[in-house]
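Predict structure. Chain length: 91.
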Amino acid sequence: MLSDEVKERLRQRLEQVHEWPSVYMFKFILEPDTGRLEAVTALFPPEAELLRKYSTGGRYLSITVTEVMMSADDVVDRYDRASAIPGLIVL
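Prediction complete.
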């Protein structure tokens, strides 16, 4: 889970660069694993656009999710929940 300090910095930064609601792009990197991949996709509703791209050697999977977010707090909450997934790199 993200610390309160990290969440507040992220929230402030998002408020500076976005007007809400806004289309927001989440990016993650992980080693391909069914359980981990399911945990990431479960963070997002079915209507979110989810793109998967494997690294050249297939060792890593990049996931880009585009979704309309209603507020900076919603984005921070999503990152906070994603941070609980072991082995997930949040970009």
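Summary: The chain has three helices and four strands.
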